[in-house]
Amino acid sequence: MKIAVLVSGGGTNLQAIIDGIANGTITNTEICLVYSNNPNAYAIERAKKAGIPYAVKSPKEFENREEFNKALLATLKEADPDLIVLAGCLVVIPEIVVKAFPNRIINIHPSLIPSFCGTGFYGLKVHEKVLERGVRVSGATVHFVDEGTDTGPIILQKAVYVRQDDTPETLQRRIMEQAEWKIMPLAIDLLANDKIKVTDGKVYIDGYEESILG
Ligand code: GRF
After folding, report:
1. What is the reported pLDDT for 214?
2. Before 114, cis peptide (omega within 30)?
3. Phi, psi angles (nearest 5°) of residue 70
4. Which of 39, 41, 42, 101 is the most exposed place for a label (fewest CB within 10 A)?
């Protein structure tokens, strides 16, 4: 399976995918493109180090959003991925791209959807709201991308306990380590091995049991 990974920042999830492919946790998978909207994203350095083709296009380079959206679609079509992976990608994926890749785009969100998700819930803001509300459990979700924000079918989730002395930063880091870097590579491996089906908006995983979450 060929995957395109879309990033905007540090790229630790991208790194988890690169490492997973290298160490055999992710099988039957190659990264055909890393795409960033942000020229300063450290994720691009990670792609360079790993010898993976990359592209950088910022919406600012285009006259309007429609032109950017068209260029994004063209870049993706040219790379011809079987799956598009949003790994900390802050660009809202336009409808033309969602329609061109139905149930072939996945995203990692740093909370247990449907809590703490939707418009305005991204990056550290998610963890700030979690701490503000005082919930005891948060986590991460890998889901398919549809036309809504964080509304697509849920593939995998993993819970992480919130500590009373957590800051948004410590909670973010622990959710990455304990949840994101595990369930994103696992979801890709399951997809690459044809273990995932979507029926009536719900995901069925061949041979699923909670122990696969580690
Ligand atoms: C992660 O917390 C991810 O869930 C969120 O943005 C962050 C990206 O981190 N959508 P990185 O760029 O993979 O390090």
Report:
1. 79
2. yes
3. -65, -45
4. 39
Cβ-contact 37, 1 below 8 angstroms: no
Question: So what's the pLDDT on residue 100?
Answer: 97
At residue 123, the pLDDT reads: 93
Provide the b/e sequence for 118-135 (b: ≥16 CB within 10 Å).
Answer: eeebbeeebbbbbbeeee
Span from the CA of 143 to the centroid of ligand 1 (angstroms) = 14
143 is catalytic: no
DSSP tag of 64: S
Ligand 1 atom nearest residue 41's Cα: 12
Token reading at 203: 């995901």
* Active-site hit among 32, 89, 109, 111: 109
Q: Is the CB of 11 under 6 A from ligand 1?
A: yes
Assess whether the C-beta atom of 106 lies below 6 angstroms from ligand 1: no
What tokens were used for 179?
A: 């949840």
Of 31, 36, 43, 35, nearest to 3 by C-alpha is 31
Tokens describing residue 191 = 């997809």
Strand segments (E) across 69-136: 83-86, 105-109
Answer for the pair 163, 170: CB distance below 8 angstroms, yes or no: yes
Cβ atoms 106, 125 nearer than 8 A: no
pLDDT, block means (10 residues), the chain with 214 residues: 97 98 98 97 98 96 96 97 97 96 97 97 97 98 96 98 98 98 98 97 94 87
